[in-house]
Design brief:
Length: 388
């Protein structure tokens, strides 16, 4: 029906899949993701060798694992980028259900690896973090529910998605994993905003989120300790934030030199949560600005392409994926420079971690699939036809 009303662009029926994919994919975003992964490997060579030495492992143990996980992530990303929006929706819902079941089972079969938060399911040879895989599926499911709510006689998708969001946020807060809980709530808010949420309602929801933060501060010693450390005027130089802040200051504009940094020997999470501190110390502000530019370019370019979409699901789900990707990077780097409280969140495609990099590959694969050029015309065509 859409094609009958608005017209369509002819596509050769016999065109092979790969050439059609290459012609319609957002090549700049794809190139930006590959650059981020390359930078991640470069920083892994610097940050993970000291950790391997501390654990009595071969020097490039973590680098090798990052190459493997990254290869899987890129393969998954490329495969997902070839599917249609309908297939993205189906795969997203299935992936969400699997990750949600794993999240429910965490209190019974999960482990904290000595970090005080039960977030992982260990298989001995490897482990997974369900919340990482939950995010892309949740965004796709939320986009589908809110798009369906716009149909005449459609389900109350906004209410369903809100209730589902509350359940997930509570489950994540109980781990505790307030960083992922905030990211889930943010993604839902962005999708709801794009779907046409009343400003007053968003204000009420934001107020409830603040109230929930106050309650978490009073109920969780772990959460309160991080907030108190963030609000303190003084930085303890022996904490992770202290080491990271000092490393960023020492790096200056061009860095202290490749392999000359010291923060990677001091921070236990230098290869994950504080990888940007290693980049700032050894390569300086130049590389950090380049990393920030890549995240901004991927996010903003994807949003501009989604503005042309007429399909509500594609527009809503794509916006949620793009914003969640950009905000996760902003949170990670904001923590390192003490603009935000410590949250234990990785830098997509740059930080070490199997769950993180593969989940990022899934999310970006779905985003690339949703931002591909399709035979639908553009949003502006609708207004031009109405004027005529």
């Amino acid at each position: 029906m859409t094609e009958m009303v608005f017209g369509t662009v002819r596509v050769g029926a016999g065109e092979p899949v790969i050439p059609r994919w290459w012609r319609t994919i957002d090549k700049w975003t794809l190139f930006g993701v590959l650059l981020l992964f390359g930078i991640g490997l470069l920083l892994a060579l610097a940050a993970s060798v000291p950790l391997a030495e501390k654990n009595g492992l071969p020097p490039f143990y973590y680098v090798t694992r990052q190459v493997f996980f990254g290869g899987v992530a890129l393969a998954v990303m490329l495969l997902l980028s070839m599917v249609s929006p309908d297939q993205v929706r189906r795969l997203g819902v299935i992936g969400f259900l699997a990750a949600f079941i794993a999240l429910v089972l965490l209190p019974f079969i999960g482990t904290d690896f000595g970090k005080g938060a039960v977030r992982w399911i260990s298989f001995g040879f490897a482990s997974i973090q369900p919340s990482e895989f939950l995010k892309p599926g949740f965004v796709v499911l939320t986009g589908w529910l809110m798009a369906a709510a716009q149909d005449v006689g459609g389900p109350p998708g906004r209410l369903y998605s809100f209730l589902l969001t509350l359940v997930i946020v509570v489950m994540l807060a109980l781990q505790p994993d307030f960083g992922q809980a905030c990211l889930i709530l943010f993604a839902w808010g962005v999708i709801y905003f794009v779907a046409g949420a009343p400003f007053m309602l968003l204000t009420v929801i934001a107020s409830l989120a603040v109230a929930g933060g106050v309650a978490a501060y009073n109920a969780s010693e772990h959460f309160a300790r991080r907030i108190d450390g963030f609000l303190s005027a003084d930085i303890d130089p022996r904490t992770q934030i202290g080491y990271a802040t000092n490393a960023i200051q020492e790096g200056g504009f061009f860095g202290v030199g490749v392999g000359e940094g010291t923060v990677k020997w001091q921070l236990p999470d230098a290869h994950t949560d504080f990888i940007i501190a290693v980049a700032a110390e050894e390569y300086g502000l130049v590389l950090v600005l380049g990393i920030i530019a890549l995240y901004c370019a991927i996010t903003v370019r994807s949003l501009f392409r989604l503005m042309k979409e007429r399909d509500p699901f594609t527009r809503l789900a794509g916006t949620g994926l793009a914003c969640a990707f950009g905000v996760q990077a902003m949170i990670n780097m904001g923590v390192a420079v003490r603009l935000l409280p410590a949250k234990g969140m990785t830098l997509p495609f740059v930080s070490y971690g199997g769950s993180s990099v593969i989940a990022s590959g899934i999310a970006l694969g779905m985003l690339l699939a949703l931002t591909r050029s399709r035979p639908q015309g553009e949003m502006a065509d609708i207004f031009l036809k109405r004027r005529r």
